[in-house]
Amino acid sequence: MKYLYLHGLGQKPDSWDRVIKETKVSDSSVSLSLAEMLEGKAATYGELYTAFSEECDKENDEIVLCGLSLGAVLALNYAIDHPDKVKALVLIAAQYKMPEKLLKFQNMLFRFMPNATFKQFGFKKADVISLCGTMAELDFRDSLCKVSCPVLIVCGEKDNANKKASKELAGYLSNSCYRELLKAGHEANAEAPEELAAVLQEFYENVE
């Protein structure tokens, strides 16, 4: 079994390093790079999802997907499209219907941020704005019934922008459980790596 980790926008693959190190499946774990997947392609959600799907399709074994924020959206999307391929799913700070107002506000903030801020994560400023803009109409509500694997939904106690959606998602998915990380915000993998790793390991052991 292969464990694939997906970071959020504003992070790099090494954002998962401390979490992966604390789990017992570190030897079977890979943290993917969103920037590398989009390299040479148009900065749209469709292009990113296609590239991510190709990465998943390369794996001969069943996969466990663990994603944060945008990474969680991609993981959920793939589990809907390929239920037979995904053994288990971990969705952190997840949205199942994109909050248009939040995305527009986020993009407005991006426009005022310096280019250097984005370069350190491997993206151009215009690409991040374009990517977020193409996500606005994503809505998985009618497809959630296709997810058949066990799902762990995690959200930081202080992540008020995503907590409501995460709890709702747990209610929609038949084989799911919800865990809240105390004192953690949106980037749980960076803010509470040990606590998150413990929750993941418990879930992984029940899946195997």
From TrEMBL:
Keywords from the named record: Lyase
Enzyme class: lyase
Signal peptide: none
Gene Ontology molecular-function annotations: 2-succinyl-6-hydroxy-2,4-cyclohexadiene-1-carboxylate synthase activity
Domain of life of the source: Bacteria
EC number: 4.2.99.20
Ranges where the Serine aminopeptidase S33 domain occurs: 58-145
Protein name: 2-succinyl-6-hydroxy-2,4-cyclohexadiene-1-carboxy late synthase
Organism field: Faecalibacterium prausnitzii
